[in-house]
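Hello,

Following up on my earlier ticket. Below are the two sequence lines again, exactly as submitted.
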Amino acid sequence: MNAALFRHAWRLQRVKLALVSAGLFAWGLFPPLIYAKFGKQFEAMLESGIFPQQFARLGSGDIFSLTGSVALGLIHPIALILTSVFAVGFPVSAIAGERQQGTLEVVLARPIGRRSLYFTLLGSALLFIGIAQAALLAGCSAGAAFAGVFSQLPLTYMPLLWMNAVLLFGAVAGVGLAASASFDRFAPALGWTLGIEVGMYLLEVLGSLWPDAAFLQKYSLFHYLRAKATLAGSPTLSDLLVLASAIALAIAWSMVVFPRRDLAAPI
Amino acid sequence: MAAIRTNGLTKRYGAICALDALDVEVREGEIFGFLGPNGAGKSTAIRLLLGYIHPTAGRADVLGCDIVTESVAIRRRIGYLPGGIALYDTLTGLEQLDFLARLNGRAPVRRGELCEQLELSTKTLNRMVRDYSRGMRQKIGIVQALQHDPELAVLDEPGEGLDPLMQRAFYGILERLKRQGRTVFFSSHVLSEVERVCDRVAIIRSGRLVMVEEIAKLRSRRRRNVAMQVEGGLPTLQGVAGVSDVEIRGQRVTCSVDGDIGPFLSAIGSTRVTDLTIEVPRLEEAFLDFYGERSS
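Thanks for your patience. The regenerated structure is below:
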């Protein structure tokens, strides 16, 4: 880690981080409120058989329990898009984007090894994701308090859920940094990272909506964010290991590719 | 000791040879010009020396450190100005310089004098870089490369974007660096710029080193294009040492003069010259001269 580079990344991202965190906090208020207000009605509608039960689920989330609604808040596209600002946007622009702009050349003219640069950026991405996810969970807690169901929230397991979410989006950021370290231009790095993230998200959603496609879920990193199970007190260590392994794989790829790459003059 | 020494330094991209067995030595304390047209391999050589790209063959040392295994140590001791430098648009000039100085890990001891010489006021430095003109960006580029007083400055096309007054100020900075024993590796495609500030020059074309020469020798070898308007009798230029391509149209005489200009001046000494232009050849012409000689 390079302290000067880290401070620089923080400085450039702090306003964005504040806005994204505020957005995630605000979004986090809704799922517990919706659960408290409409959970019972939705459950009754589903039990009447008007539409399949799968349609009320997204990943491991639902709106029939507080833990399910928090899980829904974490994996909902709104949370995904906001968190992707730091899980995709930051890592992709940090190397490939700066390379395309020409600013990476100025930074690498300093006594900084490429490995040090990489780990500083990875550490920064994990920190930003961590803050963003903490804001989301804080929003969920505040929403539960506003809805009068705070006592149902298993606070003991919230740190573990936070770690699960950080590992998931950390893995996406790892993919983003690996793509960023592999391409000279922003667009292909962004395309690959978004393609992988959206593809995995679709596999998870498809598997949760369509029982015949459930086997696809295990190929999605999003499947290993088991928010409801974690909050219910039965977290699975193997899920965390899968996500940590994905990060390790992305780091290994980057360590092989980035230090050996020729960084020709920006076009 | 040599500040830079390359031995057979080669860079290939597939079938394309961007740099072919470069052997060059830059002495400590000199200003060394690296001259060549765009695409000749100047930036490739610089990027190899700084560790941005890796050599296909050969080796090089910068300040006694190997470019492959000791790249970080090299960058700790040098200052680098990339060609067409890119800066962070969302920072002010001062924030930019502070950030880059922190990355260097060395105090910006020369910043004050450099900003003064390049007329970068506090007001200018506190403006966002996105509001800077190209010339101001280049000035920031020069300051960031030299502010920490590096032992070796590697400058890629440093005069680009500077107006004539600032170019003069920049040449003054280089002369001061030289007096203080610093080494400058100076890449350019502008012959006059290199001539003005450098002690020696290497000329590179299509990735190959064409020659390394003292500037004084280079100057003496240059061909000048002469045009003059005369009154009365025409001068006799046929057979004068160094004079060729003589053309006479009425009272207008044009010719080329190679090397020492003394014999030509003697030959026109008794002629009444009403107008005289001695044109410094363009870089391309100088190159063509050198290449013509080499191929013949």
